[in-house]
Amino acid sequence: MADQSIISALVLGLLEGLTEFIPVSSTAHILLAGHFLGFKSPGNTFAVLIQLGAILAILLVYFQRLWSIAKALPTSASARRFVFTILLAFLPAVVIGMLAHGFIKSVLFETPMLICVMLILGGFVLLAVDRMTFKPIYRDVMDFPPGLAFRIGLFQCLAMIPGTSRSGATIVGALLMGTDKRSAAEFSFFLAMPTMIGAFALDLYKNRNALTFDDVAVIGVGFVAAFVAAVLVVRSLLDFVSKRGYAPFAYWRIAVGVLGLAGLLIFG
């Protein structure tokens, strides 16, 4: 049974790393895969805690950029404004996450049918937005004004519904408000850092009494798998979306949602 849990954790960790930063909803993939694998985690904590691997992956890939921004803070108004816009975009998720944490984890995370429906609906939205012709106003995340960042943060809150996708919501919001595809994805990367760290810390605190020593090994395997997979994705995603757009991810969402619904109807 322990070996089965380790294998399941490995699979789920790879899914987390591969899907966290693309607009397909990593949470949906992990919850659906865990459902069909029969993998259980106290309070669905595993799905959030292994995100630490993905967090460390993006911090590693963006280390030089983050270090440059940090060094420039005392002297650069542009660097200070950028940090402020990220924190401002993060603020709505803090408020809603704190207020609705129990409902999200105990109700929404426990409804596989809802997750599948949101995958499909989100896929059609992403496909529609990808086919629209925009004239981008913003092409560099360092130039995003605070008002734009805050509105993108409001879009991110839609991802409180599992299956919506945090990156998908932020990217769609950014595109609709005048960014190009590359900067939309990059801003989603930067916004992911405080958002995922906050979600990790909150979930760890809320479920500190539910975790056991046995959970550490399972979470550790998922963490390492998520880290390795996420590094590969983050290094290649910006170039991919610049050339191919978001349609491939939209089709993937729809396919996974349809297969998930079929599985639920057939197997329960």
How far is the first residue's CA from the last residue's CA?
22 Å
Mean pLDDT equals 88
Low-confidence stretches: none
Oligomer: single chain
Radius of gyration: 18 Å
Largest sheet: none
Number of strands: 0
> Helix coverage percent of residues?
over 70%
The helix/strand class is: mainly alpha
Number of helices: 12
Beta-strand percentage range: under 5%
Order of helices and strands: HHHHHHHHHHHH
User: What gross morphology would you assign?
Assistant: globular
Domains (count): 1
Can you summarize this structure?
The longest helix has 32 residues, at 213-244.
Give a verbal description of the structure.
The chain has 268 residues and is mainly alpha-helical. The protein has one domain. It is built from twelve helices and no strands. Helix 1 packs parallel to helix 11, helix 9 runs antiparallel to helix 10 and helix 10 runs antiparallel to helix 11. The protein is globular and about 55 Å long. The two termini are 22 Å apart. The mean pLDDT is 88.
Task: Note the topology.
Blueprint: H1 2-19, H2 26-37, H3 45-49, H4 51-61, H5 63-72, H6 77-106, H7 112-131, H8 146-156, H9 166-176, H10 181-206, H11 213-244, H12 247-267
Helix pairs in contact: 1-2, 1-11, 2-7, 4-10, 4-11, 6-8, 6-10, 7-9, 7-12, 8-9, 9-10, 10-11
Main location: membrane
Subcellular location: Cell membrane
Catalytic activity: di-trans,octa-cis-undecaprenyl diphosphate + H2O = di-trans,octa-cis-undecaprenyl phosphate + phosphate + H(+)
